[in-house]
Write a structure and sequence with these properties.
With 199 residues, the chain is mostly helical. 80% of the residues lie in helices and 0% in strands. The longest helix is centred in the C-terminal third of the chain and has 34 residues.
């Protein structure tokens, strides 16, 4: 669906001589990315407006996106699968915040320690289709480790100044979502390797 929309728009632009035919693939990919990201963003915003507080949306994207970019994680096979995965993760995030208003701090602390260990041990998780240099890997490793330490310091500081506890939970859950994405990706990669060995 997204691919068809992107191809139609690019085809129109080529026919109008707005872009070159040689650049078609680049423009299709760019439009697919913009379209899928916009749809996911608008859908999660709509879910927030219907079922939650706006600052949960802001917290999720402020803490989830940078860590996800640098630490890596699970990649769906299509834009549609990516959209549904994003909606599933965000819905779980909102449901937990709405239905379990006071998660004990020791659970947040355990999740945070688990996230720190996972990111220090496995990040960055690089998708097989993403070509990146060794310097790029080292940069992502450094930034992902720095981010998770900063997140831990932010959570600790917010706890000390007695800021609304729900914000602390929201940050902890957004961070945990990235960690789970990393673990899922590792499990998928191991399964693929095992299937190749068996064949």
């Amino acid at each position: 669906m997204i691919n068809l929309i992107a191809k139609s728009i690019v085809s129109f632009l080529i026919n109008q001589n707005a872009i070159k035919k040689d650049d078609e693939e680049v423009y299709v990919y760019g439009l697919e990315l913009i379209t899928s990201t916009s749809i996911s963003l608008l859908s999660t915003l709509l879910l927030t407006l219907l079922f939650s507080n706006w600052y949960y949306f802001v917290i999720f994207y402020i803490f989830f996106i940078p860590l996800r970019i640098y630490a890596g994680g699970f990649h769906a096979n299509s834009y549609e699968s990516c959209f549904f995965t994003t909606i599933l993760v965000y819905t779980a995030y909102i449901l937990i915040l709405n239905k379990i208003p006071n998660i004990p701090f020791y659970i947040i602390a355990i999740l945070l320690v688990f996230s720190i260990i996972t990111i220090f041990k496995f990040a960055p998780v690089i998708h097989k289709n993403n070509i990146i240099t060794e310097i790029g890997v080292k940069k992502r490793r450094f930034i992902s480790r720095l981010l998770i330490i900063v997140y831990a310091l932010i959570i600790s500081t917010l706890l000390l100044i007695n800021l609304e506890y729900k914000i602390i939970i929201a940050i902890g859950l957004a961070t945990t979502a990235v960690t789970i994405s990393i673990i899922i990706n590792i499990l998928f990669e191991r399964r693929e390797k095992n299937e190749k060995v068996l064949v």
